Known about the structure:
Pfam families: DUF3667
Helix content: 55-70%
Transmembrane segments: 105-126, 251-270, 282-298, 304-322, 343-367
Number of domains: 2
Number of strands: 2
Shape: elongated
Keywords: Membrane, Transmembrane, Transmembrane helix
Protein name: DUF3667 domain-containing protein
Largest sheet: 2 strands, antiparallel
Number of helices: 13
Amino acid sequence: MSGDIEAIGDVLTGGLAARAVEPDRGEADSGGGERCLNCGTFLTGPFCNRCGQRGHVHRTAMGFVHDVLHGVLHFEGKLWHTLPLLFWRPGELTRRYINGERARFFSPLALFLFAVFLTFAIFSAMGSGLGNPNEAAIDGGTLTVTQRQSAVYEVTKNMAAEIASSERHLAEARSAGQPTDELERELAAKKRVAEGMTQTFGFGVNAKGEAQRPENVSFADIRTGAPFIDQMIDQANADPALMLYKLQSNAYKYAWALIPLSAPFLWLLYPFSRRFGMYDHLVFVTFSLSFMLLLLVFSRVLGAMGVGAPFIPFLLLLYPPFHMYRQLRGTYRSSRIGALVRATILVTVAGINLILFMAGLLALGALG
């Protein structure tokens, strides 16, 4: 119950924060007055032509409630004009906003702030939907740590058998006086894989070429060779719930960093263009990120309603690239081939940026 109340509070806070950067523009008001109560300018209409404040200022409890609802959902229509275009015709939305249609739509930053707050609220209330971090879902069931260790042991046992088989074939070839170059390369490759597994994950085949026993297999033994990263791994293994909380909290605080991370890469797709400036790219990126966050929220709600595979994985994996393609086509008037090529590059760049962002969040979690 407390989680639901906190989630509602986060949504309200997000809406009001979005409203703080999305002041009233172009909205009708039946009220008026002789002077503006904010700056004292004589009014010639429902809004002050100097500071923009409404001429009519209410002082009723219902008016206060209306302000809250208006700030969160903007009942006059901005949100409902913005979302359908954002989800299905993002290029048209981006281009119209860049060209000056501001009163009809939510600004990119206001929408992004609201999407961040909403994402945090929904995932805080409903969880990530990934299940217990100490278990792994497979074929409708779960694997405990011991079962995972046994499964890894089976893999490494097979690897040891492969190495033994290659060594036997190599010995037979040498005894028969046959060429052994190919067999030696094959054996060396298998040993490199085994050594890499042991160094990185802490399990694999030992120095004798034997598979390690299950009790010696531990995912807490993962090592990269970089002390700082290994320290983060140790902290995550020591208290995964705390690390997950820090990750969510930092993502909530620093989500805005994805905008400056992404915009320069988009500029590189249209270098030295006179038609499109950095402002265009910032609007594009902010609308695109807002959509991705809202898609996550939508998918999580569907998951809570019992909708699962294959619909949600299909939605999360295939629709974002298609959305980027449509947004590029509509925003920059690119050809189909040009938009497809740029969308492919943009998906790759987005993945790199997300990895960098998550690495930064993990570093902050380890330091904090």
